[in-house]
Amino acid sequence: MHxxxxxxxxxxxxxxxxxxxxxxxxxxxDIWVKHDELTGLExxxxxxxxxxxxxxxxxxxxxxxxxTCGGVQSNHCRATAILGARLGLKVHLLxxxxxxxxxxxxxxxxxxxxxxxTYVPVKEWSSHPQLAEQLQEYYRAAGSRAFFIPVGASDAIxxxxxxxxxxxxxxxxxxxxxxPDYIVVATGSGGTQAGLIAGRALFGIxxxxxxxxxxxxxxxxxxxxxxxxxxxxxxxxxxxxxxxxPIHTVEGYLGPGYGQADADVFVTIAELAxxxxxxxxxVYTGKAFHGMVSELLxxxxxxxxxxxxxxxxxxxxxxxxxxxxxxKQGFGF
Length: 333
Description:
Order of helices and strands: EHEHEHEHEHEHEHEHEHHE
Number of strands: 10
Strand order of the largest sheet: 1-2-10-7-8-9
Distance between the termini: 51 Å
Radius of gyration: 19 Å
Low-confidence stretches: none
Strand content: 15-25%
Number of helices: 10
Largest sheet: 6 strands, mixed
Shape: globular
CATH architecture of the largest domain: 3-Layer(aba) Sandwich
């Protein structure tokens, strides 16, 4: 397989670890965590894996500026801002929402890293691709060249991040003599989910990929992931019938909406922190982990479950620690 240009930005490989104490909650189910929150302190999480390929492409095209977009507390925007600072690239962020009174969490790090921020009201967010094009023209007129990265770096280029991660995970599984039934991950923009699905097929991983949506719905991810896989296959001439790859998105744990979690999610986050010293966030990983636990408990009770007959499960920890701080009120202290 021919790999595209890639930068070495993340601390890899990340560990695969069994959650010994938390697994005791279940009758014969081992829960393992792939610690992608350890890809680097400031740039922690899944986004840096994608950006290794995306920013490499930007540099190949002679760009000196990165434009990207996301929510005010976007992990992806934070990682882009910090990597831009490390590589000497200007970063301009389009953030969905209004400017908060206090910069906290990811937004604080965006600003400390020197990113320029433009806030886009929610009602105008659908026009952000056009705004990005206007910014590219603005920078072109100023003598710069700007590269646009879509939400979450979830496109044909960024998809390579979790194709590569799948190859790493295959080695992990061999090292631990582990044959999990399921690989569980949060999905918000679809790129990590798509990369894992492709990587599973390419590297012969038997476990089913089960993604828990933290935005939109299963129909959206069916369309988005299918489209990204097809574009990736065609762009890079990959010998893989992506139309036949199964896409499993588990609904029911979105809560009030993107970036908003039910009280049960905060309870699960706190319990895991106490038992394992492992921290999740209420936007992505907390919802997916809570959904996984709920589905495993359903299976134990003989109820219809998205994770039936599980004996071992690998949870991909995609980071998001800084998203805890703006929602600390959810823990009651």
